[in-house]
Amino acid sequence: MSLPTLYQLALSAIMCTVIFTGNVLAPRAATAATYYVATNGSNANAGTESEPFGTIDQGIRALRAGDTLYIRAGTYAQPIGYPSSVIQIPSGTSWSHPVTIAGFPGETVIIQSIEIVDGYGTSYVIFDNLTLENRLYIVVAIRMTSGL
């Protein structure tokens, strides 16, 4: 076998290795999803802006770290959270990848009943642009990680 042929084989082997392992070894950026809820939506929908969910609870069920749930204008009378509906708000992984639950920018969102019991270790959650009325029940468990 000639020297140029040996170099071609070696180069081909290296290129194949890079191509096949590149997809496995290269880190991929996680893409955060954005979901929507509207008073005229349906829980059978995909939760997109054009096909929003019908309840906030359904939107919360779809959330993962880094995701955002936008709630469109309106008054939401359905109870949200524990114990009315046993749904745990998922945690973000850091303040760079929080879970965000927010009123749609420029719109007024009124939530009439929310119960948040954070004994489950939920963290890195942002609530923004929401008006909370009537029944507001929030219990936050604080865990100390070092002695005082």
Q: How would you characterize the overall build of this protein?
A:
This protein is of the alpha/beta class and 148 residues long. The protein has one domain (34-140). 20% of the residues lie in helices and 28% in strands. It is built from 2 helices and 8 strands, in the order αβαβββββββ. The chain has helices spanning 3-25, 56-62, and strands spanning 34-37, 68-71, 74-76, 80-81, 99-103, 109-118, 125-128, 131-140. The chain has a 4-stranded parallel beta sheet with strand order 1-2-5-7, with helices on one face. Strands 3, 4, 6 and 8 form a 4-stranded parallel beta sheet that branches. Strand 1, helix 2 and strand 2 (68-71) form a beta-alpha-beta unit. It is globular.
Q: How would you summarize this macromolecular structure in one to three sentences?
A:
The protein has 148 residues and is an alpha/beta fold. Helices cover 20% and strands 28% of the residues. The radius of gyration is 23 Å and the shape is globular.
What is the topological layout?
Blueprint lengths: L2 H23 L8 E4 L18 H7 L5 E4 L2 E3 L3 E2 L17 E5 L5 E10 L6 E4 L2 E10 L8
Parallel strand pairs: 1-2, 2-5, 3-6, 4-6, 5-7, 6-8
Give the averaged pLDDT, no decimals: 76
- As laid out across the biggest beta sheet, the strand order is 1-2-5-7
Query: Hey, roughly how much beta strand do the residues contain?
Result: 25-35%
- Percent helix, as a range, is 10-25%
Main structural class: alpha/beta
**What are the secondary-structure elements, in order, as H or E?**
HEHEEEEEEE
**How many distinct domains?**
1
Low-confidence stretches: 16-28, 141-148
* C-alpha geometry: globular
Number of helices: 2
The main pleated sheet reads as: 4 strands, parallel
Radius of gyration: 23 Å
Q: Quote the distance from N terminus to C terminus.
A: 74 Å
